[in-house]
Amino acid sequence: SECQWDGEFLLNCSFTRISTIPEDISRTAKVADFSYNNIKTFLCTDGRNEEWMLKHLNLSNNLISELFLTTCTNLPVLETLNLNGNAIHTLTLDAPVPAPGSKTHRIVDRILPALKVLSVERNNLNTVPRGLGLLQSLQTVHMSSNSIQQIDPKDFQNCSQLKDINLQNNKITKIHPGAFRDLNKLQVVVDLRENPLMIPLPQILINLNFFQLEVYLSNNVW
């Protein structure tokens, strides 16, 4: 492929006009940059089920519209995933629970166990992706500049390690009072700037730790 490989850590396929992930790339790369291309589909596994040693994966500014992270069982050490600037309207993290008595193990139990940063800014999401709590190491989630309309009580359920949430410039009018209730490690930012929020301020903040947290709420409609 036209990608550049330093022979050890870095794979750079940015601005190469590729439409698919090349098959000849090294599985030992620690950093892979596929930004600014024409990729429409990203499949974490290619059928060979070989584990990648990737820690940082950049898929920003492509043409991805749907992404099913339930297939990502071969990225055991991935820490950051950049999906900014795509056309993603469906981001699937959870899967149906197998029928009682089924011997099939849930794939979601093994997806991206080391992921700390998930960035899905400038896409077409209209809801928070379901199943964020399955990413047990997740600390930062950036979803600014989407079309998210409300925050439901289960959107951040079980996100016990989450420290930083960016929801700036969405279409959020409602936030359930308990949406952030169990996020005891939130200590950096909850960014809700540039939304059409209509709810009373105390309902959002009542359960948050004011001594550790920065909350941005400017440019709303109050």
Automatic annotation (TrEMBL):
GO CC terms, sorted: plasma membrane
Coiled coil: none
Keyword Repeat: yes
SUPFAM superfamilies: L domain-like (SSF52058)
Keywords noted in UniProt: Leucine-rich repeat, Repeat
Matches recorded under SMART domains: LRR_TYP
Keyword DNA-binding: no
Listed Pfam families: LRR_1, LRR_8
Name by which UniProt lists this protein: LRC66 protein
Gene source species: Neopipo cinnamomea
